[in-house]
Model the fold of this input.
Amino acid sequence: MFTQLAHQAGVTIAAGTDVTSDRFNTVTPMVHHEMQLLVERAGLTPLEALQAATINGAKVIGIEKQTGSIKAGKTANLVVLNSDPSNEVANSQNIVHVIKNGQFIHLGDNEKLPFVMAREAAGLLFLSGQLGNLPTTMALAGNDISTQMKQAMKNIGFVLQDHNLDFNDVVKCTLMLADIKDWPLANKAYTPFFTKLPARSAFAASGLALGAKVEVECIAAL
Done:
């Protein structure tokens, strides 16, 4: 009621939910629930609720020049959605991509793909092959072998983190290269991820998904 009266009086409303989603067993942050409450109980429009959670919040803590809206020169902190939240604020939870500080964020398994990121068996974690694509997208991070190799390894790192592991737990990797001539540059981008190198195989293929230059498959000890 107080928030509704403040809104009616022209007070700028900023969303500020700090409680974690884990406490309520929800997939998305609780700010999405707060936006729904702002619409349903405080009388904000969906667009006003979105502003409360973005630009208004940035203004409250004095960082609106760096973030809070989409503008050249600002830090990219974005969610890309399947549906328009300005019509129905609940659509803010229909998330396709998350970009934080200009980087695509790993969101786990993609239901549209015919595999999972990893499976546990016999004390080992078997990871699916990773390309050098930006997480949750079909876009390669770059056109050169070094950039794609580094991104593929980062993608492996994300999956390892999901299972509370890191590169120290990796015992075997397989490199699949579109061109065996890229082997030296692939090695140069690959080795810095390890303090102790795992066993490894490498071979050239006639082609890889998305036209990628490299795919990396690893096995980690649990």
Observations:
- Helices lie at 2-8, 31-40, 46-53, 55-60, 145-162, 183-190.
